[in-house]
Amino acid sequence: MRLSMDEIVNAVCLHLSERHEVPVESVEVELLFDEEQGFSAEVSVQGRSRFIIEANIKEAIARYMLTEYDQRVFPSQITLDVEDEIWADIA
């Protein structure tokens, strides 16, 4: 299964809104890729900005897969990749 960039952003938004107990509308996410640093995201939760690393993104995707698709997925089964945009392959 493959998740689009929009679904990854949704996964991170939903995950952070649950963790911080805030409305999902107050979470903003920008996915990033750097050849040296790998995948990350700049997130803003109620105006407070920070960066999350690839492991956090995979954790959000795993939770999203369980809640939205009723599939238990482990981070080791998730591969992030990029060409024109970022996507996730689920093994």
From TrEMBL:
Pfam families associated with the record: DUF2653
InterPro entries: Uncharacterised_YxcD
Protein name: DUF2653 family protein
Source organism of the structure: Cohnella yongneupensis
Lineage start: Bacteria, Bacillati, Bacillota, Bacilli, Bacillales
